Amino acid sequence: MWLIRNRTLILALTILALLTVNACLPKSPSERGGGINITVYGFSIMKESLEKAIFPAFTAKVKREHGLDITFTSSFAGSETVTNQIITGVKAQIAILSIERDAQRLKDHKDITSDWHDLPQKGIVNKTPFVILVRKGNPKGIHDFPDLAKPGVKVIHPDPNSSGGAQWSILAIYGSELVRSEKQSGEPDRARALQTLQAIWRNVISTGVTPGSAREARATFESGYGDALVTYELEGLLMKQTGAPVEIIVPEATIFSEHPAVVIDRSVSAADRPVIDAFMQYLWSDEAQRAFVKYHFRSSTNEALTQENKELATIRYPFTVDYFGGWSRAYPEVIDGIFRELVQKRK
Fold first, then answer.
1. What is the distance between the alpha carbons of residues 295 and 297, in angstroms, rounded to a whole number?
2. Secondary structure letter of residue 342 according to DSSP
3. What share of the chain is helix, strand, coil (3-state, %, to 5)?
4. Any idea what the Cα angle at residue 263 is, between residues 262 and 266, rounded to 5°?
5. Model confidence, pTM
C-alpha cells in the first residue's frame, strides 16, 4: 500500500510539471480515500458559474483525459462571512472572494502562506461592473447613482460588515461622483461625492434583517421590497433571464469589481496539493473563462471572450479599486473613514 500511494504521488507531481494552463492532473492520494474531493468556498454570486459550469467541466475533463473521479464541496455567502468562516476553522481548500482585502485577512491569519499574486492576472479570476436595478418601466425615473437620493426612492443594500458586494457598491457610488466631477472640472469633487453617498444612504431601507450578501439583497429586491438595488451587473442579467420585471440602469461612471481566487494552504495536504494547483490553473483557462462569461462575468484574461456575451453593457467611464490606491487604502480611507464615520453614523 505504501508503495502504491507513493508511486501515485510521484506520478501526480511529475505530470503537474508538464501541465499547461488548459491541462488537468491525475489522481493523488486523498485523505478522503477513493476519488478526490475539492472544497471551495465562494462569495455569493459565484454559485451559478461554479456549480453549473466550472465544476462539471473540470470534473469531465479529468475523467475524460485521465479516468479519474473528482467531486466538489462548495459553500457560498458574503465575502466577509466566508473569510470569517475560514478564519474560525472551516476546512475550505480554495476561496473565491469578492475583495482582495479578504484574501489579505486570510494571509494575515496564516491560513494562506502562498502569494495569490503569483497566479495568472495576479489572482483575479473575473470581474464585473456595478449597476442599478429598478422595477420594470423605471417608475422612479432613475438614470444614475444621484437619482437614488431622490425623495421617496427606497434603496435595498447589503450589509458592508458581511458583504464584499456592499463595499464595492459604496466605492461605486462615491467613486462615480469623483470620476464624473473630474471629467467635468478637471478635479475630483470630494464634497459632492460625500453628499451624494450620504443622501443615497438616507434612502436605504430596513427590511427587518439587513441582507448579508449581494445575493441576499437581490432576493430581498425580488420579493418586492424597495425601488432600486445597487449590485453586480450579472445579478440583473440573471434576473432578466428568469423573466423578472426589472430593468438594468448602467451608470455613466462605475467600478469594476475584481475577484481573487486563493488557496487556503493550511487546509491542503501535500498529497492533494497537485490537484488543487491544477484546478486553480484551470480557472484561467479559456474554457473556464468562457464559462464565467456565459454567466455574465467579464473575463480577466481575454477581452475577446468577454465580447462573446452581447448582453454585457458598455461603461462610459469605468474605474477599478486602483483609482483609490488599491484596497490597502480604499478600505481605511473610504469604507471606514468616509462611509462608516461620515455616512453610516450620521444617517
1. 6
2. I
3. 50, 15, 35
4. 135
5. 0.88
